[in-house]
Amino acid sequence: MMRSNTTTGGVLRKTLTEQVYRTLKEEIILQQTPELKMGARINEVELAARLGCSTTPLREALNMLRRDNLIVTNAFHYSEVVSFSRKDIHDLLSIREELELSALRQALPNITAEDIQNLKDIQVEYERVYRKSDFLETYVVNRKFHDYILSRADNRILSNLLDGLSEQCALLRSSSMVETRRTFSPCGVFPPVVEHGQILTAIEDGDSEAACQAMSRHIRRVHDDVCSYYDRTKFNV
Fold first, then answer.
1. 188: left (phi > 0), else alpha (psi -120 to 50), else beta?
2. 32, 56, 206, 229: which has the highest count of C-beta atoms within 10 A?
3. Which residues of 41-75 are buried (b: 16+ CB within 10 A; e: fewer)?
4. What domains sit in the chain, N to C, each tagged with a CATH number?
5. Three-class DSSP labels, the chain
6. For the segment 163-201, what is each residue's pLDDT rounded down to a tens digit?
7. Rounded to an integer, what distance in angstroms lies between the CA atom of residue 80 and that of residue 15?
8. pTM of the shown model
9. High-pLDDT (> 70) share of the chain, %
C-alpha cells in the first residue's frame, strides 16, 4: 500500500511540475507577464503563490527552464529570466544560420520522395496555423519543419546544438513575429510561409545551392526582423 501511494504521489508531482513548467515557459516566451520579462529576478514565493503550487514543483520547473536556457543564475546566485544585449542577439542568430545551413547540406543527400511529401504536409499546416495568429502554435510547426530537415542530417551533435538555441530563438522571435504578421496580414502574404515554400521547392528540384540560398535568406530575414524590433523597443529606450 505504501509503495502504491508513493508512486501515485510521484506521478502527481511530476504532472504538476510539467504543468508549472509549461505555464512558465509560455509566459517567458510570450513576454506578456511583467514578473517574467527578460532580465527579471525570479521571486519563488510570489510565483508559487500565483500559480497555486508549493515551491518544490516550482523549483523543479525552474531547473527544466534552465536546461532550456530560459532561466539563468546571475553573479549574486539569484535566478532570473535570460536577457540579451544587441551583440548577443546578433551572435545567437548568426550561429543559428550556420547550424541550419550545415543541417540542410548534410540532409539533402538523404532526402527521399517520402520526405518531400512530409515536408509539404508540414508546409500546409504551417500556413494554416500562421493565419490563426497563435505564436506558440506557429512556432511549434515552424520548428517541426526545421527539425524534420535536421533529422535527415542524422547528426546527433548538430541536433543537440540546435536544440540548445531553439527556446531562446522562440523568446526573441515572439514579439517581432507578431509585428511581422501584423505588417503583412492585410495582403495575406507571410514571409516565413513563403520562405519555407522556397526552401521546399529547391529541395524538391534537387537544387542544393538554391535550397541553401533560400535557407540563408530565411534565417537572415528573421535576424534582421528581430534586431530591428529590439533596436526600436529595447536598446533605444
1. left
2. 229
3. ebeeeebbeebebeeebbbbbbebbeebbbbeeee
4. 2-81 (1.10.10.10), 86-235 (1.20.120.530)
5. CHHHHHHHHHHHHHHHHHHHHHHHHHHHHHCCCHHHCCCCECCHHHHHHHHCCCHHHHHHHHHHHHHCCCEEECCCCCEEECCCCHHHHHHHHHHHHHHHHHHHHHHHHHCCHHHHHHHHHHHHHHHHHHCCCCHHHHHHHHHHHHHHHHHHHCCHHHHHHHHHHHHHHHHHHHHHHHHHHHHHHHHCCCHHHHHHHHHHHHHHHCCHHHHHHHHHHHHHHHHHHHHHHHHHHHHCC
6. 999 999 999 998 787 666 665 555 567 899 999 999 999
7. 24
8. 0.85
9. 89
The identity of residue 37, as a single letter, is K
pLDDT at 134: 82
Partners of 81 in the β-ladder: 71
Spatial separation of the C-alpha atoms in residues 155 and 100, rounded to whole Å: 12
Q: Which residues contact 24 (CB under 8 A, 6 or more apart)?
A: 36, 47, 51, 61, 62, 65
